[in-house]
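Hi R.,

Here's the chain you asked about this morning:
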Amino acid sequence: MAEKDVLLYPALDKVAGEEFLQEAFQIMLEEGIRKGMDASEKVCNWKEPEELQQILDLELKDGGEPQERLLEHCRDVIRYSVKTCHPRFFNQLFSGLDPHALVGRLITEMLNTSQYTYEIAPVFVLMEEVVLKKLRELIGWDGGDGIFCPGGSISNMYAMNVARYHHFPDCKQKGNWAIPKLAVFTSQESHYSIQKGAAFLGIGTDNVYLVAVDEKGKMIPADLEKQINRAKSERAFPFFVSVTCGTTVLGAFDPVAEIAEVCSKHRVWLHVDAAWGGSALLSQRHRHLLDGIERADSVAWNPHKMLMTGLQCSAFLLRDSSGLLQRCHCARATYLFQTDKFYNMAYDRGDQTIQCGRKVDCLKLWLMWKANGTKGLEQRVDRAFAFTRYLADEIKKREGFQLVIEPEFINLCFWYVPPSLRGQEGCTDYCLRLGKVAPMIKERMMKKGSMMVGYQPHGNRVNFFRQVVTNPAVTRGDLDFFLDEIEVLGRDL
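And the predicted structure, written out as tokens:
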């Protein structure tokens, strides 16, 4: 074909492409969803990195490969990946698979649009505001603002940036050297994104004051006030307090109402990192854990965790209705946010964010909410609490299991003490030996593929398991299996 004629025809084979999609979707349904959610299948087919590199054909070549070979690549990707939808995957703060949320994710990928303007994403601009408004109502706000962010860490960073701009609008143009030394306050149990945010924004990690916590991991309001006064004495300006509702390890909820009093007294921005625990607001039975959250200036909330919308879905929510978010982040790019558009430019929300292109994160949550209703999501939250209560009660009945702390949320933290260590608590090397148990059991379960659960040390506590259940496909049989399997894998240690 002559070069001038090449542009007369499409460069894509639409028929072959559709055939590939149909075959690939069938593989996803069978291998990823049906087998991935089957308790009799492995959570993971573990291979060491060197072995996996030999199995997978990861090299990118000059020429394209045939469809059957590409489909085999798809099978391999699923086969050797961790099945986070498996009913015995307890390793992260997210798990499970909601079919409606998945469809929302697939439609989002298929449409492949960006959230920045109404003209390119008319449905999603309207949808995002409806979803954010619903989340704000659950917090207890009548108005406000917000945006979906790429994860809770970025949502927390947005809060810090907006709070700085609120106190010192000149910092946007003149930078940090035009404003006083700033002080951030958060608890010793807070998420590491607060430290990262302070570093990224030029505030500095040395200016993050860590507030003491009680025996349950909750921030102590009296120590917060002490730290604020200390910062003032060191000629720093206290501008931002981040409290945590659902700490990563223990699942603790800081006393927001009491902390709000301290923040009000000192005129400090109050941010609530409810990335993990925010979904408890849906439960009439458990929302008391977040009492006082309505007094916050901003909130981070990750529905991709407890509500199972799928990664990623993180909301940054503001009580402010004056356009603070827009003023803080806007750059007014005239090639995107033209001032002479034929529709109402108020619907172009892209200048509220530090991003330009922004993935649509609202559809999966909206479609899942439409399918389940608020009551259905409440039942999902209550079921997660019931899972944890059941396991905590069972642990108390079983020899060798020991709770680290009585669970307040759905983080179940416990040690498994094998028979060889029982009654040895007084020995000098007891803690050293106990700290090796969880990693060894984890290695065995991973190589066996039977389940996955996380472990970590914490303060002066040696390694213990942190089990989290958010997947409504889990049954009591899966929970009993979990405890039985810990015993099977660790009894000879």
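The longest helix spans residues 362-397.

Let me know if you need anything else.
M.
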